[in-house]
């Protein structure tokens, strides 16, 4: 095992990371040989989120994309619990544990209700796969990247299924440019996906088991299977009664400075989707946050001056939305592409091997 470098005064600084998603897992891994690291997460695993839709049509894919925290956090402490409160020097968990920190990193992303164990999560994918396999018609609500990618995965793998995508916006993928949205709509239609724009579905008044849904325009849709792919709230509700309650903006984001520290705090960082950084919330940007914050923590822990810390510059959008296993639509700052070329970049492996490698794991091996 690699040895920890001697820190200032021979004492390792205590770094607590709350949230084991894209950003939290990477910063914990990056700091584990530079500090006394504790990762607090309600799950025993990290899941690569952009692989989740492929796992619904191919459950074995999840065996590489759902990773035990202990597999990459070999020199840190894992606390499988929810954080429910923080003070200036401690985090309180749902089990009543007080975990002391010198530095705190908040990386709680979005609210997700995932099961605690890896095996339960794999079973969920198996159940969703069976649901898709046995359905003749599938309704997807939400035409952002998640809804579009799920519709494309099902249309590509199950060509005899009737797939209906309902989106309340005037075009798909509103976070990116209209050209990319138009190309995506054409691709979906070419795969016989029925797309209904400017409509919503009243999910509160669906009678269970009837498989009948009514859109805002009064249209009746029959579907054997429903997937709701609308946005999830930011995971900041737990901060409302903590010392950081005034650091959360009206959108539920934590206000950070250019070094990714929570504004007004010298020893508390925030990274990933929970931050108010003005950019589209994407996994690869959360990874960039983690690496910048890790660098800055190393500067501070070694007694370096604050002016040596790195600044994070928001990135202009670079978005790749996979369309099944071969194609994708990509928007780069100067061009928009659709088809096999952007598909080669993302769609085959969905960056799973690359993400595993970044965590120090074999890109190919299935975890057990």
Automatic annotation (TrEMBL):
It comes from the Eukaryota. Gene3D superfamilies: 3.50.50.100. Residues 14-289 form the FAD/NAD(P)-binding domain. This is FAD/NAD(P)-binding domain-containing protein. It comes from Rehmannia glutinosa.
């Amino acid at each position: 095992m690699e040895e920890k470098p001697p820190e200032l005064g021979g004492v390792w600084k205590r770094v607590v990371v709350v949230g084991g998603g894209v950003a939290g897992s990477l910063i914990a891994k990056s700091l584990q040989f530079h500090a006394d690291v504790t990762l607090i997460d309600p799950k025993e695993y990290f899941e690569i989120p952009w692989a989740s839709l492929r796992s619904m049509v191919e459950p074995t894919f999840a065996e590489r994309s759902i990773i035990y925290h202990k597999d990459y956090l070999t020199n840190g402490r894992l606390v499988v619990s929810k954080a429910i409160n923080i003070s200036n020097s401690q985090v309180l968990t749902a089990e009543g544990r007080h975990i002391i920190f010198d530095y705190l990193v908040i990386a709680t992303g979005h609210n997700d209700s995932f099961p605690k164990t890896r095996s339960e999560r794999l079973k969920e994918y198996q159940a969703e796969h069976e649901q898709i396999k046995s359905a003749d018609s599938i309704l997807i609500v939400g035409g952002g990247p998640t809804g579009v990618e799920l519709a494309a995965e099902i249309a590509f793998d199950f060509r005899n299924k009737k797939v209906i995508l309902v989106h309340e916006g005037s075009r798909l993928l509103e976070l990116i440019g209209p050209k990319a949205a138009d190309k995506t709509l054409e691709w979906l239609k070419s795969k016989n996906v029925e797309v209904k724009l400017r409509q919503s579905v009243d999910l509160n008044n669906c009678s269970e088991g009837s498989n009948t849904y009514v859109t805002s325009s009064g249209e009746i849709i029959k579907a054997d299977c429903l997937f709701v792919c609308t946005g999830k709230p930011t995971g900041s509700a737990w901060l409302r009664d903590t010392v950081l309650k005034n650091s959360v903006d009206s959108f539920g984001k934590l206000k950070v400075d250019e070094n990714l520290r929570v504004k007004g705090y010298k020893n508390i960082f925030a990274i990933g989707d929970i931050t108010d950084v003005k950019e589209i919330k994407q996994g690869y940007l959360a990874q960039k946050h983690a690496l910048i914050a890790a660098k800055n923590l190393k500067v501070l822990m070694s007694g370096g001056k604050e002016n040596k810390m790195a600044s994070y510059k928001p990135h202009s959008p670079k978005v790749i939305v996979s369309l099944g296993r071969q194609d994708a639509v990509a928007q780069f700052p100067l061009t928009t592409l659709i088809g096999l070329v952007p598909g080669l970049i993302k769609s085959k492996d969905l960056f799973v091997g690359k993400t595993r490698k970044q965590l120090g794991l074999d890109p190919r091996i299935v975890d057990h």
